[in-house]
Design a protein that fits this description.
Helix content: 40-55%
Structural class: alpha/beta
Strand content: 5-15%
Distance between the termini: 52 Å
Number of strands: 8
Radius of gyration: 19 Å
CATH architecture of the largest domain: 3-Layer(aba) Sandwich
Number of helices: 15
Strand order of the largest sheet: 3-2-1-4-5-6-7-8
């Protein structure tokens, strides 16, 4: 029995009977997938098996290690600034996509923000499409992204440019018809060689527990939330709550301000969303309270990293607590 067959036999026995791979095996398997060393039939079987059973914490850690080893990271910013990293892989189906609003508010506050994600998604409005309507063009190299972060404080890079091997696994959604583990892993990437504060969103609230486990046991410096339609921006019509996972612990940052009226939002097409974002930046339309809270949480996260607390992954997790 070859190694791939052994892995598939372990994870492919259905939701209740499937076993989990050891971290080392998971890293080896995902590295082979990223490098194109897994035949198509077995690759499809592996991705579907993982979707059915779900990734264990050790598998997630192994897969993430393989992903981080598969692409070239951006250098730490020359001026010593700590960037915020926003993944954008879901797009908007009903709400306007307000990831660009959050990014531009961060940039205006002097915090560099790096967005990576897909460029097109049928039936959804992507962050790239809204940025295009705002006149913010994509960075097609690490040097270009760093230059834009230094000048305008905001840069968007397509995943095909940042991490082409990961993009190839993401692209299998069009063949298999469903998302796969790479969609989770792409949201967890740390694209910088130096410290960065990541925003990591989930679609389903139950998955916050798994992200908390991961970012307190195997990684650090992530702001966790249930995003707007899965995007890494606060839902503008929900009570905001952000969870900061850092240095082996997690804490929930709540908005203690008075509740505000539900904001009037634009239609979701890119041009209309872009014009609305411009009106917010011009002070003609108020920033939705949930996004204002997320902006403050990003600022706090950057300050926590600047304070010099350990950024070394810890192995002991603790439960979330209010603060």
């Amino acid at each position: 029995m070859d190694e791939l067959t052994r892995y598939i036999k372990e994870i492919g026995r259905g939701k209740k009977a499937a076993g989990d791979l050891a971290r080392k095996d998971a890293q080896s398997l995902f590295a082979a997938m990223l490098e194109g060393r897994v035949p198509d039939l077995q690759l499809g079987g592996i991705l579907i098996a993982l979707r059915v059973k779900g990734e264990s914490l050790e598998e997630l850690a192994g897969f993430a290690a393989a992903c981080e080893a598969s692409y070239n990271h951006l250098p730490a910013l020359e001026d010593g600034s700590i960037p915020v990293v926003i993944p954008s892989y879901n797009g908007a189906r009903q709400l306007p996509n307000l990831v660009p609003l959050l990014a531009l508010l961060l940039a205006r506050a002097g915090i560099p923000v790096f967005i990576h994600g897909v460029t097109r998604d049928p039936g959804r409005v992507t962050t790239r499409e809204v940025f295009d309507a705002l006149g913010v063009t994509a960075s097609m190299s690490s040097r270009e992204a760093c230059a834009r972060l230094a000048i305008s404080r905001v840069a968007f890079m397509p995943i095909e440019v940042l991490a082409p091997e990961i993009a190839a696994i993401l692209g299998l959604r069009a063949v298999l018809g469903v998302r796969n583990s790479a969609h989770t892993l792409a949201k967890m990437l740390q694209p910088f060689a130096g410290p960065a504060a990541r925003i990591v969103s989930v679609t389903h609230p139950d998955y916050l527990a798994r992200m908390r486990e991961y970012f307190t046991a195997h990684d650090t410096a992530a702001l966790l939330l249930r995003g707007a339609e899965g995007e890494a921006v606060a839902h503008p019509r929900r009570e905001p709550g952000m969870e900061w996972a850092f240095d082996g612990r997690s804490v929930i940052w709540k908005d203690d301000g008075l509740p505000r009226a539900s904001p009037e939002l634009p239609d979701r097409d890119p041009a209309t969303t872009a014009r609305w974002i411009e009106s917010v930046l011009a002070g003609q339309t108020p920033v939705p309270a949930a996004i204002a809270h997320q902006l403050e949480c990003c600022r706090r996260a950057v300050e926590a990293l600047k304070a010099g607390a350990s950024a070394t992954p810890r192995q002991v997790a603790s439960p979330a607590s209010g603060a």
